[in-house]
Design a protein that fits this description.
Elements lengths: L1 H14 L19 E3 L2 E3 L1 E2 L16 E5 L8 H6 L2 E10 L3 E2 L3 H10 L4 E6 L6 H11 L10 E3 L15 H19 L4 E4 L1 H6 L9 E5 L5 H4 L7 E9 L7 E6 L3 H10 L4
Helix pairs in contact: 4-5
């Protein structure tokens, strides 16, 4: 009987998903403040990397991205410990909203932390429907970060195994991005992963800021020649104010350049 109960619990955990997969929070007590290296924050990590080239802590502006997997966040504490921005999962496809979106959106704003909302693209719905769903659920806040399109292969989707050809992917992206830009008045950011970027030749998408995932080496090594604005460097970061693993990111620039970027994008 005990084996049966255990098996049911494991199956239940495996079946939880939706969007970019992230670690189920692990309890952590007495989290240390980030180290300061060369004047920049260096956060703890439950699965640290021996970076072969440029290190994430060579950058001065760090942030997090969160979804329903991050619960019990103390946003003021995170901000007080060198977290400068947050990307928050809002929607997926044409009918799913992250159950923690409104809580995270409100919490980050109350802490005075710049935050933006991301949409996880679903290849079995058309771009127009998905843009409409995002617009329906994400407030038009002129002081927020630009909207984000999170586009990658979802290997774990139980309902959509479709993998369109690269030209179709890029056309769908451009349609979604145009609609969202027209509504919010800000040029969206594109989040993507290594395999998706290369398989769909996303270097041909111009005029948008890229937010690139690269958890083993610097983006210049993984996405040669691509200009990027944000780098997701860990999915197992540890930040005071977050009770478990959390995604860590940096902005590509100095603190002064970050402030200038915020002004250009109307972020208050």
């Amino acid at each position: 009987m005990r084996y049966f109960v255990f098996l049911v619990m494991v199956i239940g955990l495996v079946s939880c998903g939706g969007g970019r997969q992230q670690s189920v929070p692990k309890t952590q007590v007495n989290q240390p403040s980030p180290d300061i290296v060369g004047g920049n924050p260096k956060f703890a990590d439950s699965d640290p990397v021996d970076w072969p080239s440029a290190k994430p802590w060579q950058y001065g502006v760090h942030g997090v991205d969160v979804s329903r997997y991050q619960l019990g966040l103390d946003w003021p504490k995170m901000r007080a410990n060198q977290i400068s921005f947050a990307f928050i999962k809002a929607t997926e496809g044409g009918d799913h909203i992250d159950p923690e979106f409104r809580t995270h959106w409100r919490g980050a704003a109350q802490a005075g932390l710049p935050r933006g909302a991301y949409h996880f693209y679903y290849f079995c719905r058309n771009a127009r429907e998905q843009a409409a769903w995002y617009i329906r659920n994400v407030p038009k806040d002129n002081g927020a970060l630009p909207p984000v399109l999170d586009i990658e292969w979802n290997h774990t989707s139980p309902t959509c195994k479709l993998r369109p050809e690269a030209s179709t992917v890029r056309a769908s992206m451009r349609q979604f991005l145009r609609i969202v830009k027209a509504h919010y008045g800000k040029t969206p950011i594109i989040y993507t992963t290594v395999d998706f970027y290369h398989e769909n030749d996303l270097g041909r998408i111009n005029g948008y800021t890229f937010w690139l995932r690269s958890v083993a080496d610097h983006p210049s090594k993984i996405y040669p020649g691509e200009r990027w604005g944000f780098w997701q460097y860990s999915g197992t970061g540890r930040v005071p104010g977050a009770p478990g693993d959390i995604d860590l990111n940096v902005f590509h620039g100095s603190v002064d350049q970050w402030q200038a970027w915020l002004r250009r994008n109307g972020v208050q």
